[in-house]
Amino acid sequence: MPKQVRLRRGTTAQHAAFTGAEGEVTFDTTKKILVLHDGVTPGGKPLEGFLVLSPGNPLSVQTVASTVSITGGDSDSFGLIVSYEARFDSLINAAAGVYPRRIQMQHEEAAYAPSVNLDFNGVAHKRMSLTGNLSLTTTNMDYGKSFLLRIAADGTNRTLSFPVGWKWVGGAMPASILAGKTALLQLRCFGTGDADVVAQWSVQA
User: Which entry of 48, 66, 191, 199 is 20 to 30 Å from 38 by CA?
Assistant: First the structure.
C-alpha cells in the first residue's frame, strides 16, 4: 500500500479562529479547498476564486466568478491579447463593465475580385483596393458580429452592389465610389441572414 498523507483540517468556522504556522497548508472541510497560512493571518488564505482551465478541451467555456484585474503591459504594449473572437453577453455589460485604455483589432488586406465574400467568421477588419467594379456577399452572420471594410478606389469611378436584404442607416445604399476616394463600410449583425445586417457607408469628401 502507498503511504497516505493527510493535512490538518477543519470547517470554515474553525479556520476563522485558527492561525496556522508560516508555510502550513490545511484543508477546509466545508468548502473542500486548501488554505495557506503565513503565521499571522487568522483563517489563512483560502485557495478559492481561481480560474481552473479544463485540460484537453480548449474550447470549453471557463467561468471567472470574481473581478479580473490585468496589470501587465504598459503604454506601449498590451496587457491582454485575444487571438480569436471575444464576446460580451450583452452590449449593456460591454458598455458598463469593460474599460480598455486601447484596443487594436487584427487587420488584413482583402484581395480584389469582381465578387468578394465577407466572412463574419474571419478577420473582421479588412482593407481593399479596387481595380474594377465590386459586388459584395456575406456569410456566417450571427447575433452581435460586426465587420469593417475600408475600400479605396483607383483612378476610375467604380460601381458597387450589395446583398438586397441589408438595412442602410445614415444614408442610402451607395451605387458607386468616385475615382481616388476612400470609404468605410460598417456592418453589424442582428441575426443570421442578410436581412439582419445593418450597414453604414461613409466616404471621403
Answer: 66
